[in-house]
């Protein structure tokens, strides 16, 4: 029993260790000038997708619900925090402003998580999946027609370009389908450190999700996944714990969105479509459902893969698709699993025979 | 008169959704999987027609037949290679992700062969427009064909599933796969047949979609695919009349949303209606209510 | 006053009255059996008592408190815990965590305490581990504490389900065919365990069972259910010798 506690804790620290080690390696490469421009540009997005994948795993792996709307929560976090950053650009220095922006993104996405989770979690299985997808698309569509600006009279919100009028000297921030531009320029002084900030956010995300999962609430969340009816029979409020997982996951997706939007000079809503949600789900499933470290590693490898294959031009996404299908078949098909365990047996058996001889 | 004009556009678009949704709903009902690549088979079908006519110089009828055969075979191959090995996997997420992989694969193969720029689709269906009320309402030939074709498909499919032996095997597999197997139904063959029919229908849907909206890119199938899936869920996934009604309602809502509210939020309206329907009736309009036995 | 009082309990599914006018009184500390042929409505009675189904008519009182129509969660909190005919464990969780999930409402700390690993987290988790191990020892499952529940052999899975139910500190324990699928040795062992639980935890138990040896061996009183109605109830020996009961089981 004592052993088991230590094992989980040890496991958690190994995961933190991997993150810190990767960071150290990248920093060393970068300071010795061995990191290409392409790779340098990938670093912050890698953190974004790692946070997104780890947080989605909380819903898919631990509460056992399939969500296809994760990009929607990232979108909410990205836009709310970018608006905040623009509005407070003159009032606050960049470090506290960025910290507050992260909190704004997390809280707004978390609130959306509660509002969407309450109706959605009444549904089961594939119906839940399609409704989360629908919510993600609705969020994208609505932000697409949103115009927000500030002038001396305060904040103005409109839904058409024609109805969007500011007093002289006013600042248009969100311009419908054109999105928000110049967010990263607001943080010129700390832009260099975005990768460090990203890594810290990855560590915080892992800390929150790992500790949540290995706690009383985490057990309750997993019990609703394994057997909903049995969980109710021992007095566990299934809806409450599914909603908890959904909300924490949404808030952390919001944080990923904050990092995403502040790293860009042009933020357009069209990137947050269901394809992005699916991409994150692919990381979760390939990394292992319920395996947080796996999500992280799958996110890093699979995000970097198509980018690193750029040399292959048009073939890169084709290669990606083939790799994805083959990996799924190899990892999940019962026949492939049996074959693998037979190979392991054979290998072990062979080794033992050799030793005997 | 504009109301009726929008209504007929909605029914026309909805009929296309309905044909795609039929493929979705049959596959879901029988293989219990979301075939995310279904929409991309539509795109493949349309490209086959386009290539057969422009490069092969074939007649439209022959091109359409080749396209149907090609998609049917494609559907069977996809099922056999990518989905069947995962049918008994411990998580049903595995096959979903593989389907996404197949979707990427089809899109990127098309991208490689045909390029990313939009092709304009050739005229395949050449039926004269119908002019009503002294020209106040003009119904395009393609609209008439689309609606007629979808009604025929729906009737044929209902007859097939209810009255023929392979159709009843499909019903049996959809109710309880293991029991069907024990009763001597060839489950593998039945699932293959389902994919064959669904993919053949996708080829027809590709023809109708690209005839009504004549541009074609490797991503043409993706969004109609998702919408058709929404339509299938809307009508109650697994139900053939549900797919039909869901598809048409979705098309009408989308066109009305575009016409009367805003073209930018039409999709949001479609999805919002889906959410409302599912919250009121969690298994869709025609869906069966299944309660877990305790 | 009886610990459990059930009167006029009925439920209708469409045209079928699956349970019709069911009544039952169980005194504190009793080991009570519910028997009857297949399809008589025994499990439906359990589902009514635990709020899985809402009764069409009737009243259920636990220790005088009306629990009719309450949710499964509220009923568990009021003091009824159960096992299931088709075992329902948390298969992908360790054996220990299955029991700790049962302790959920009795050992509390907030979500934030858990995430931030505040001192209270370590204190309560330690208490939970000790309590859970104590319960597992009763069922001789302490050595398997770290195995995944789904990997336990069948007999032990049945025991773990009882252990998890007991962890919720119920007043009344409902066991749905606890000996189903067990061999005679395992059944004998299970009878000992049930008796031990009855004394050690001062439990009141209602069990559904087909194994007449088990029922006759440990139950003090029986109710026989047939076609959703109470055929007879009373002392075990009387009931088992009742000709009506024999007919119901063996047919005309």
> What Rg of chain B is obtained from the alpha carbons, in whole angstroms?
19 Å
What shape does the CA trace of chain C take? Answer: globular
Low-confidence stretches of chain C: none
The tally of helices of chain B reads 11
Question: What is the helical fraction of chain C, as a range of percent?
Answer: 40-55%
The largest sheet of chain B, given as strand count, sense and whether it forms a barrel, is: 2 strands, antiparallel
Question: What's the helix-strand series of chain C?
Answer: EEEHEEHEHHHHEHEHEEHH
| Whole-number mean pLDDT of chain C | 92
Provide the helix percentage of chain B. over 70%
Strand order in the sheet with the most strands of chain B: 1-4
Please give a quick description of this structure:
Helices cover 71% and strands 3% of the residues of chain B. Chain B is mainly alpha-helical and 294 residues long. In chain B, helix 2 crosses helix 9 (222-235), helix 5 crosses helix 6 (165-175) and helix 9 packs across helix 10 (240-261).
Provide a descriptive summary of the structure in words.
Chain A has 357 residues and is mainly α. Helix content of chain A is 71%, strand content 5%. Chain A has helices at residues 2-31, 37-62, 70-87, 94-120, 125-144, 194-213, 216-226, 228-233, 238-262, 274-287, 292-308, 315-332, 334-356, and strands spanning 147-151, 154-158, 171-175, 180-181, 266-267. In chain A, helix 2 (37-62) crosses helix 10 (274-287) and helix 11 (292-308) runs antiparallel to helix 12. The longest helix of chain A is centred in the N-terminal third of the chain and has 30 residues, at 2-31. Chain A starts with a helix and ends with a helix. In chain B, strand 2 (130-132) and strand 3 (137-139) form a beta hairpin. Chain B is built from eleven helices and four strands. Chain B has helices at residues 2-31, 38-54, 60-83, 93-114, 141-163, 165-175, 177-182, 187-212, 222-235, 240-261, 266-280; strands spanning 119-120, 130-132, 137-139, 215-216. Chain C is built from ten helices and ten strands. Chain C has helices at 42-49, 72-78, 95-102, 111-116, 119-138, 154-167, 184-200, 212-218, 236-241, 243-250, and strands at residues 4-13, 16-26, 31-35, 57-62, 65-66, 80-82, 172-176, 204-208, 221-226, 229-235. The model of chain C has no long low-confidence stretch (mean pLDDT 92). Chain C is α/β, with parallel strands linked by helices and 252 residues long. Chains in contact: A-B, A-C. At the A-B interface, helix 5, helix 10, helix 12 and helix 13 of A face helix 4, helix 9 and helix 11 of B.
């Amino acid at each position: 029993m004592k052993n088991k506690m230590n094992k989980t804790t040890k496991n958690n620290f190994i995961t933190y260790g991997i993150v810190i080690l990767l960071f150290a390696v990248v920093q060393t490469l970068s300071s010795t000038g061995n990191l290409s421009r392409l790779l340098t540009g990938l670093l912050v997005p890698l953190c974004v997708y790692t946070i997104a994948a780890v947080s989605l795993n909380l819903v898919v792996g631990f509460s056992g619900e399939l969500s296809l709307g994760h990009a929607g929560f990232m979108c909410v976090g990205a836009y709310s925090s970018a608006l905040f950053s623009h509005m407070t650009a003159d009032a606050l220095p960049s470090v506290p402003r960025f910290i507050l922006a992260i909190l704004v993104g997390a809280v707004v996405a978390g609130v959306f998580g509660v509002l969407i989770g309450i109706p959605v979690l009444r549904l089961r299985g594939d119906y839940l999946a399609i409704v989360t997808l629908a919510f993600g698309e609705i969020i994208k569509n609505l932000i697409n027609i949103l115009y927000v600006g500030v002038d001396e009279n305060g904040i103005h919100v409109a839904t058409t370009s024609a109805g969007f009028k500011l007093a002289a000297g006013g600042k248009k921030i969100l311009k419908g389908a054109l999105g928000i531009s110049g967010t990263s320029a607001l943080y010129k002084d700390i832009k260099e450190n975005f990768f460090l900030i990203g890594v810290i956010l990855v560590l915080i995300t892992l800390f929150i999700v790992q500790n949540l999962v290995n706690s009383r609430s985490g057990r309750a969340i997993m019990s609703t996944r394994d057997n909903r009816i049995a969980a109710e029979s021992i007095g566990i409020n299934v809806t409450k714990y599914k909603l908890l997982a959904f909300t924490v996951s949404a808030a952390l997706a919001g944080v990923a969105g904050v990092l995403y939007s502040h790293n860009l000079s042009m933020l357009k809503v069209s990137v947050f479509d269901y394809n992005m949600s699916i991409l994150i789900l692919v990381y979760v499933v390939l990394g292992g459902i319920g395996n947080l470290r796996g999500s992280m590693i799958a996110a890093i490898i699979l995000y970097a893969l198509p980018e690193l294959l750029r040399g292959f031009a048009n073939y890169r996404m084709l290669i990606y698709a083939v790799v994805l299908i083959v990996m799924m078949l190899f990892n999940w098909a019962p026949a492939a699993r049996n074959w693998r365990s037979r190979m392991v047996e054979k290998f072990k058996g062979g080794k033992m025979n050799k030793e005997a001889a | 008169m504009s109301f009726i004009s929008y209504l007929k556009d909605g029914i026309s678009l909805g009929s296309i959704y309905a044909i795609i949704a039929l493929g979705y709903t049959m596959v879901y009902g029988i293989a219990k999987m979301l075939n995310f690549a279904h929409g991309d088979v539509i795109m493949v079908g349309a490209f086959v027609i386009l290539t057969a006519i422009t490069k092969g110089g074939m007649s439209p009828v022959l091109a359409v037949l080749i396209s149907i055969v090609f998609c049917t075979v494609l559907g069977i191959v996809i099922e056999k290679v990518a989905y069947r090995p995962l049918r008994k996997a411990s998580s049903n997420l595995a096959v979903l992700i593989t389907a996404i992989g197949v979707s990427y694969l089809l899109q990127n193969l098309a991208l490689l062969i045909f390029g990313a720029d939009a092709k304009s689709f050739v005229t395949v269906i050449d039926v004269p427009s119908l002019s009503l009320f002294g020209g106040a309402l003009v119904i395009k030939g393609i609209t008439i064909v689309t609606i007629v074709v979808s009604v025929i498909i729906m009737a044929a499919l209902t007859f097939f599933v209810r009255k023929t032996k392979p159709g009843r095997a499909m019903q049996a597999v959809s109710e309880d796969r293991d029991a069907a197997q024990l009763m001597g139904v060839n489950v593998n063959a039945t699932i293959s047949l389902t994919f064959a029919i669904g993919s053949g229908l996708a080829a027809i849907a590709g023809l109708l979609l690209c005839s009504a909206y004549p541009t074609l890119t490797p991503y043409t199938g993706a969004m109609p695919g998702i919408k058709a899936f929404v339509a299938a869920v809307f009508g109650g996934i697994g139900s053939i009349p549900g797919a039909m009604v869901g598809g048409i309602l979705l098309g009408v809502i989308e066109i009305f949303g575009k016409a009367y509210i805003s073209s930018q939020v039409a999709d949001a309206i479609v999805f919002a209606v889906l959410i409302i329907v599912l919250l009121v009736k969690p298994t869709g309009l025609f869906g069966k209510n299944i309660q877990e036995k305790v | 006053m009886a610990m459990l009082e059930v009167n006029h309990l009925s439920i209708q599914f469409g045209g079928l009255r699956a349970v019709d006018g069911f009544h039952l009184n169980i005194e504190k500390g009793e080991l009570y059996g519910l028997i009857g042929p297949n399809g008589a409505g025994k499990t439906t009675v359990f589902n009514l008592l635990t709020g899985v189904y809402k009764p069409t008519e009737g009243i259920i009182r636990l220790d005088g408190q009306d629990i009719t129509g309450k949710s499964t969660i509220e009923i568990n909190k009021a003091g009824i815990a159960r096992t299931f005919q088709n075992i329902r464990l948390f298969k992908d969780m360790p054996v220990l965590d299955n029991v700790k999930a049962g302790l959920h409402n009795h050992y509390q700390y907030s979500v934030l305490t858990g995430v931030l690993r505040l001192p209270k987290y370590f204190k309560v988790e330690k208490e939970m581990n000790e309590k859970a191990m104590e319960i597992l020892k009763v069922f001789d499952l302490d050595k398997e504490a770290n195995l995944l529940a789904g990997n336990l052999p069948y007999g032990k899975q049945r025991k773990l389900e009882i252990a998890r139910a007991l962890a919720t500190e119920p007043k009344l324990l409902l066991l749905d065919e606890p000996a189903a699928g067990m061999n005679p040795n395992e059944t004998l062992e299970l009878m000992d365990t049930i008796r031990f639980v009855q004394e050690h935890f001062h439990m009141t138990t209602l069990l559904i069972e087909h194994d007449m040896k088990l029922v006759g061996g440990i139950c003090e009183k029986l109710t026989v259910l047939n076609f959703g109605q109470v055929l007879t109830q009373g002392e075990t020996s009387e009931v088992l010798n009742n000709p009506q009961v024999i007919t119901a089981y063996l047919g005309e």
